[in-house]
Specification:
alpha+beta, 12 helices, 14 strands, Penicillin V Acylase, Chain A, six-stranded antiparallel β-sheet, about 25% strand
Length: about 350
């Protein structure tokens, strides 16, 4: 990648291994380690609204979040300090979807229970204005972070709090996150912060408490494997539904439970997410290994509902495979068939 004057980082996924005694220190270490990456990212990222407006509109969400998750605010302060930019810019970046009121149909999650344990697959799909497809994937990385003897491993990208994509913690809680379309937003805790809080939970009771006690700004789908039980939490800014799911489960970007509204049913992008979901459901019928899931998540068609997504608009940024028996967390940032480079991280 030598076009557009942009820097080449690596064909393989970067891994940051962080050991810290505080959330601020953890954030600062990540900021220092990714400073050049963040600077390069910010030099090309195009926000939908001016940064000054984005920051101003994001501040009421900050006041709400401080009440519930002050430690995560401290981590973002550390991140900003490490990168060398104002904290308000990091904060605004993490809640820009609520402020912009935007929606992109993205991400696929797959859970399959085999005789030897669970295998989980996740395609992280996204869109970043200002980048070409072959450039933006290089900005994603893996964080394996220890804070006070607690470990959290997740896929991340510049300036994000982390935990809002796919993650596994030292209690064995696995989470994948999928976007959902809904219209109602309110001033509250942004969905990326909710997802990060969920990624640190130790039980389904702790997760449910987050949803029952926190004023949320918007909603995600949270797919959770906890103590060998699989749950799906679909949410909006005002409601959530806990669904205990089956041994072969797929979620893309439409409500599967009771929170689907007439507006959601009429949303023009729903046909795409339904098509992608159906294709994965059909494909996993005989899947029984991580290699099977890799092939499924890499499946590319000319349809808008393609599982692996390329071209203009939303594309697949990274593919993650978790094997609970092997205790591995594998990530690839590009589909090159048999030549695909996978970063393999051992997890507890």
């Amino acid at each position: 990648m030598k076009n557009s004057g942009k820097k080449v980082y690596s064909n393989s996924m970067r891994l940051l291994q962080i050991q810290a005694n505080s959330y601020f220190d953890a954030g600062k270490q990540i900021g220092i380690a990714t400073r050049e990456l963040c600077e390069e990212f910010l030099s090309h990222f195009v926000s939908e609204i001016p940064w000054e407006t984005l920051i101003k509109k994001s501040l009421p969400y900050l006041a709400e979040t401080k009440k519930s998750f002050p430690h995560l605010i401290e981590e973002m302060r550390g991140l900003a300090d490490g990168v060398g930019i104002p904290f308000e810019k990091v904060w605004a970046f993490n809640c820009r979807e609520e402020v912009e009121g935007s929606y992109q149909e993205r991400c696929s999650s797959v859970f399959v229970k085999t005789e030897s344990g669970w295998i989980i697959g996740h395609n992280e799909d996204d869109y970043w204005g200002g980048f070409q497809e072959n450039e933006v994937r290089d900005y994603y990385f893996i964080v394996s972070k220890y804070i006070s003897e607690n470990e959290l491993t997740y896929l991340s990208c510049p300036l994000m709090i982390g935990g809002e994509t796919v993650s596994i913690n030292s209690s064995g809680v696995i989470q994948t996150v999928n976007t959902l379309h809904h219209s109602h937003f309110q001033v509250g805790v942004p969905k990326n912060i909710i997802a990060r809080a969920v990624s640190e939970a130790k039980s389904i009771e702790e997760v449910v408490k987050i949803f029952t006690t926190t004023k949320r700004a918007s909603g995600y789908c949270h797919n959770l494997l906890i103590n060998n039980n699989l749950y799906c939490i679909e949410s909006t800014s005002e409601q959530f539904e806990l669904i205990q799911t089956t041994e072969r489960f797929v979620h893309t970007n439409h409500y599967l439970g009771s929170l689907s509204t007439d507006e959601d049913e009429e949303y023009s992008g729903k046909a795409i997410t339904r098509e992608r979901c159906s294709a994965i459901v059909q494909a996993i019928g005989t899947a029984n290994s991580t290699e099977d899931l890799k092939k499924i998540l890499f499946r590319k068609t000319e349809s808008d509902g393609s599982i692996y997504r390329t071209g203009e608009g939303v594309i697949t940024m990274a593919t993650t495979i978790i094997d609970t028996k092997a205790k591995t967390f594998e990530v690839a940032n590009n589909n090159k068939g048999e030549d695909t480079v996978w970063e393999n991280v051992s997890v507890q």
